[in-house]
Structures are given as structure tokens and as C-alpha cells.
Amino acid sequence: MKVYTLLPSDAQARLTAALGSPAALVRASDEDGLVTHIGTTTRGTVVIDPKLVSPTRLSDIVERLMTLESYVVVYTSLTPDGIQASLPFLRANRADVVLRGYDDSLLRLQQLLRTSERLTAGERVIAGLERALVQLPSALKTAIGDMLTNEGAIDSTKRLAAAAHMTRRSLDRWMDKVGIASARLLVATPKVIRAFTDMRHSDLSVARMATRLGFSSSRPLEQHCWALLGVHANELRNGLTTDEVVSRVVERLLMRASISQELE
Amino acid sequence: MTNDQVFLEAMASSPEHHFMVLGAGFVTWRLWLRLPADRLTPEQVHAIESALVAAEAIPDSWQFARAALRDALDALASMDADAQAQAALARYATAIARLAPDVAALILAHVNGDRHDRAEFDDEAPWSYVIPDVVADVFPSSITPRIPQRV
Questions:
Q1: In which order are the strands placed within the sheet that holds A25-27?
Q2: A97–B34: do the CB atoms touch at under 8 Å?
Q3: Backbone torsions φ then ψ of A75, nearest 5 degrees
Q4: A106 touches chain B (CB under 8 A)
Q5: Picking from B9-13, B14-18, B52-56, B104-108, which range would have the lowest pLDDT averaged per residue?
Q6: φ and ψ at A41, to 5 degrees?
């Protein structure tokens, strides 16, 4: 996971401590450097102090980050100019705010980076499914993209079908047609990714995680983990890397397509 | 409008001598929401107290708000003081109801929402827990806070 930053030194150091892996941070020295680093096509995570952006470039930077669908953490100071400069990011609706010295405990920063990791994993699953998704009606493709990157918005096959303006039966037919294992497994994917990012390196229990995900017991989470990853839920803590989770999920979701190709 | 935006919009449009009372309120409220997962550190207590000291020149109308916030902070800094912090935050919200109604409504929505799981704060929309009766009790009829949509 790459995290692009435009921050003063003290904030950069704190973020590095929270991430525990300096290599994952790509620091820009100014706004132009940030634009160069994030490029034009890469979705990524950006942690920015908007006070380091000149007021004349602020709206341009906000627009660029939102166009790229970057996940943005505004990490600034509790001062009138810091808050004023942060508002364009909040108004654009895709930023979390952290206040330096007040609100930036390592736990808080780690939680935000986990959110970022979750979004990134969801986006990588979308990329892995691309050959199947490209065959879908655009409304369904968009709904699946939203579901995998915007946790909580669509949490059932019924809602996925509604978001795609089709019946549940049509949804199943499209899954069959493009070779995705099932709508049910697809809907379970963001929940399993969240369980992975929340439980990894933590002592969070499976039962507590299941509650967080809105399940009434641990059983559905166990079933989803086994179906998508081939592991028990408690093995999410230390057993897998993000790369493995993404590749296993994609492989499992496209299993039907692979079998069809072999039969052809 | 997101929860953060409610607070930050109010802070950005407030006079400078009100800013730190709202700013310290924002931080205190968020720390309370994250309890017990994220316990208040001595450094954070010091930072917020300093912010309140910096806001000494506030007008009388804000003194009650600041005092309530100090109570909330004291409660947060001690262990097992969740209920006191909750009550102090409610007093703070009541004190700023006329001056920053959207922020006051946001805080009241939380402190009166007994179903809200604060550990889930980053993932859920607390606005679904707004209690209209409580809001009606606190706000003068001439003020109608904007209640953001679920985000």
C-alpha cells in the first residue's frame, strides 16, 4: 500500500511511526511534487496538510484528488487557517480530518490507514475481476465498484440488484453469464476484506468482528472467510498478506469462469 | 454534510475568539466517541487545556461552554468517568446551542443516543440516532439546527 504525503516533518514522522513501514510512504516536498507522485491514473491514499498548498492551487488539487478517487486524510493544525484550508476537502466528501497534537494518537492514525488499506484492497479486487466486470451492464458494474470500495452502502444481494436497477434473478443470470461464482459471495467480499484489515495484527475477537459487520453470530463470517479465502476467521489475524487476500478472493470469485474456459 | 464538516464549517465561520472553544469541543467530543478504544493521553489533555487557556478572551456567553468543556476533559482524563463526560458534553452542547446550533445538535445526537456504538464511529452515521425531543428541549423555537442526512 502506497501512501502519498504532503506534510511538515513532525506530522510525517508521526505518520511513519503509525505505519511502521517508511517504505510505504511517498513524501512530496510541495504541491507540484504531490501531483507528480500521484500521477493521472493511480487511485491512492493521500495524507495532506492543506496549509502547504497555495490558496490559488487548492481547488485544483482537491479536484484532481477527487477525480482520481483518492482516499484523503487531511492532517492539519487546529488553527483558523488550517480549518479554512481543510473545508474544500470535506465539502468534496472524501476526506477524514486529523488535528495535529490533539487528535493524532497512533491508534487513530492506524485506524485511518486501515481504512485506506481496505479501499485499496477493494480496488485491487475490482481490477482482478475486470475481465468479467467489463461484460456487465454499466449500472451493475458501477454498483459492484461502489460496493467494493464504499463499505456499507450495499450489503446484500437484494440491495446490489436494486442499485443495478434489476431483479435478483437478473443479477444471478448476469453472474452466471460472466463467470462470477455468485452474487452472494461477491456481496460478502467487502465484509471479508474489512474483517481482514481490522483483525490483522490485533486482538479483536471473531465474535466482536462479526458484530461490527452486522452479523448476529460469528457463523456467517466464518462461512464467508472459508468460502472466499479458505481459512478460518481467526486465521485472519496473522496468517495472510493483503496480496494473498486479494488474489484468493479474485481467484475464488472467478472460479466458475476458469472452469468454463477449461471446458472450452 | 458529514459530521466533521458540521463542526469545521461552524469553526471556520466563527469569530476568532470563539474558535478555540469550538475547536477544543470538537477534539473533546471526538475523543469521547472513541473511548474506550482510544484512551485520552496526558499529551492530549495538555494540548486541549492549552487551547482553552488560549481562549481566555472569550465573551461571557461562552464562559459556561468553556467550563462544561473543562468538566468533560477532567472526566475523560480519569478512568471510568464515561457518564460524567457524557453529561458534561451535554451541558457544553446546551451552552452553545444558540451560538453554534448545528454543532450542538450533533453532540446531543451522540450523547443521547444510547444505541450508538462509539467504537464504530468511523464507519457509521450517528445522525440516525438523533433524538428530536431532546433537540426540541434544548433549542429555542427560533433556531432550527440543520440535521445532516445519513452519510
A1: A25-27, A3-6, A45-48, A71-76, A95-99
A2: no
A3: -120, 95
A4: no
A5: B52-56
A6: -125, -15
Q: Which of B115, B124, B130 lies closest to B151, judged by CA?
A: B124
Contact A86, B15 (CB under 8 A): no
Contact B9 A87 (CB under 8 A): yes
Residue B89 identity: L
CB A44 within 8 A of CB A13: no
CA distance B18 to chain A (A): 11
In a 10 Å sphere around its CB, with 0-12 CB exposed, 13-18 middle and 19+ buried, how is residue A130 labelled? exposed
Grid cell at residue A36: 507528480
Q: What angle do CA B110, B116, B122 make, to 5 degrees?
A: 85
A149-158, A243-252, B2-11, B62-71: which range is least confident on average?
A: A149-158
> Which residue type, as a one-letter code, is found at position B37?
A
Let me know the angle formed at the C-alpha of B5 by B77 and B48, rounded to the nearest 5 degrees.
Answer: 25
Reported as a single tens digit per residue, the pLDDT across A102-152 is 888 888 888 888 777 777 788 889 988 988 999 999 999 989 988 887 655
> Model confidence over B96-138: pLDDT tens digits?
887 888 888 888 877 776 434 444 444 344 444 444 555 556 6
Gap between the Cα atoms of A106 and B38, Å rounded? 9
Chain B CB within 8 Å of residue A17 CB: no
Q: CA-based Rg of chain B, rounded to a whole angstrom? A: 14
Tell how far CA B19 is from the center of its chain. Answer: 13
Contacts of B114 (CB under 8 A, 6+ apart): none
Which secondary-structure segment (H or E) carries A160?
A: helix A157-163
Closest partner residue to A102 (CB to CB) among B12, B47, B119 is B47
Q: What is the pLDDT of residues A41-69, one digit of tens each?
A: 556 688 999 999 998 888 888 888 877 76
Question: Could you say which residues from 70 to 99 on chain B have a Cβ atom under 8 Å away from some Cβ of chain A?
Answer: none
Q: Is the N-terminal amide bond of B36 cis, ω within 30° of 0?
A: yes
Closest chain B residue to A89, measured at CA: B5
The beta-carbon contacts of A89-95 under 8 Å, at least 24 apart in sequence, are: A89/A48, A89/A50, A89/A62, A89/A65, A90/B2, A90/B4, A90/B5, A90/B8, A91/B5, A92/A62, A92/A63, A92/A65, A92/A66, A93/B2, A94/A65, A94/A66, A94/A69, A94/A70
